Amino acid sequence: MLPVIYTPIAEKYFKKLKDKSLKNAYKEAIINIRENPNVGDVKTGDLKGLYSLDIYHNRINYELAYRISKLDNGDMVVIIMAGTRENFYKELKQYMK
């Protein structure tokens, strides 16, 4: 399983989450990513090099954006941003600038 780190914006989002079942859904998704980093959709254009994973919870679509960083001693998963689908990619593009 690959190690994982979180950007400050992702840490802040997860810290604010109150819904335990949604938190668990994110945890399961991150475990899946750590086991198989290519599980998400590859992004192109402005977001080239990133992956996104859809998480459906209570009929709401949530997104998880991440990338795989190459290190000398192996790869690492970097969780960049998480949130609801609404305006997610717009905010992600702003964050990546």
How is this structure best summarized?
Helices cover 35% and strands 36% of the residues.
Model regions low in confidence, pLDDT < 50 over at least 5 residues: none
Give the strand content.
Answer: 35-45%
Structural class: alpha+beta
Broad shape: globular
Rounded mean pLDDT is 94
Detailed description of the structure:
- With 97 residues, the chain is α+β, with helices and mostly antiparallel strands.
- Helices cover 35% and strands 36% of the residues.
- It contains three helices and five strands, in the order βααββββα.
- A five-stranded mixed sheet has the order 1-5-4-3-2.
- The longest helix has 16 residues, at 20-35.
- The chain starts with a strand and ends with a helix.
Keywords summarizing the entry:
single chain; 97 residues; alpha+beta; 3 helices; globular
Topology:
Layout: E1 4-6, H1 8-16, H2 20-35, E2 41-42, E3 51-57, E4 60-71, E5 74-84, H3 88-96
Parallel strand pairs: 1-5
Antiparallel strand pairs: 2-3, 3-4, 4-5
